[in-house]
Amino acid sequence: MVNIGTREQDSSEANISAGQKMLSAVSGSLLTSLLVTPLDVVRVRLQSQSKSSTIPRSSHSFAALFTSQSPNLGVTACCREVFWMSNNSPVCLAAGAPATTPLGALAASSSSPAAQCAIDESRQKTFTSTLDGLRKIARHEGISSLWRGLSPTLVMAIPGNVIYFTGYDSLRSNRRSPIRNYVPDTYAPLVAGSIARVAAAAAISPIEMFRTRMQAAPSGASGVTVFKETLIGLRKLAHTQGFTSLWRGLTLTMWRDVPFSGIYWWGYETVRDNLVSMRNVSREHLQHVKSSQDHTATFVDSFVAGATSGAVASIITTPFDVGKTRQQVLESDGSRARSNIKAGYVMPEERSMPRFLYHIWKEEGPSGLFRGWAARCLKVAPACAIMISSYEVGKKMARRMNEKNASQS
To answer: With contact defined as beta carbons under 8 Å apart, do 268 and 196 qualify?
Structure first.
């Protein structure tokens, strides 16, 4: 059964062309990407940061960590010369440090500038919260690093949102849509949102992997250098493991995005319809001011509904986002893959989605599955609000323009 709100929506959608809907989606994508990319960078860093990379707060505990390491590990007094064993490792290799120098003895001295240097360097590379990540990235890597990956984000967001939003509108309002004809209106947002997201995610998955790896790079290298290194890494990955490896994480992306989209659109339409109903009741005696407040009302309704449903959906689907990020950040070259096969060892990130998430839960607990949830919520809620409100206002402006042109002709 189709309710009155749906019929009104169908009538308004019929007055907007596909090109105008795409233009509205593009404008919303540009604005959203510029505003929320810094939060996305912090989210990726937090999620790709393993539990073992948490740095001890005191010099004594840090020295204890070093004492258990091989004696040929060391640090230098100059932080610029510290070479890290991996992105997530709290242990560094000393450039030119004598192999006979026990690192434990070096680090145990609280007055050692080398030990303090290593401690400071470690803390710079480890984030404890969203605000801590924003502050450290801006201070140690430069403000521009907060927008690392913006180019692939735009390349990904524009076609992805065009497919996603116009596809959803078509599935919901087109008279020939099977969802409109066979799915109850209560569940139509769930189904239409899920299908539209599957199409969009499959189309942009390689670009999203490229962006995720760029944002996960913790070094202070320039954006051009990170871009080139990431591109080279993906080329090697495609050469050694096949072209389909560029869609690594697509299954987890589907597990994250499909339920997210279903929850989001169901919540969005529910909240928006309730807001519209309450506003209409309060305006029954003020009908003469309704038209002048249409744009503002549309923006407010869409913004509030988008932020609310986006926040709820993002929290619920955070474990899948953690799994997707870690799988895509995994650097697995050909030699490493072959050595793993010979040893009969499968890395956790290469397991199936349920087993990988179970591994995270067993090793890190529930907090591991929800790592970065605050950064994700802070990013997704405003992103959803900005995107959907821009899209809805853009469509309303296009509808008004079409109606005006029709009346003048």
So the answer is: no
Distance CA 26, CA 11 (A): 23
**pTM exceeds 0.85, yes or no:** no
Return the closest-CA partner of residue 350 out of 243, 235, 252.
Answer: 252
- In this predicted model, what pLDDT tens digit does every residue of 26-53 receive, in sequence order? 888 888 888 888 888 888 788 777 554 4
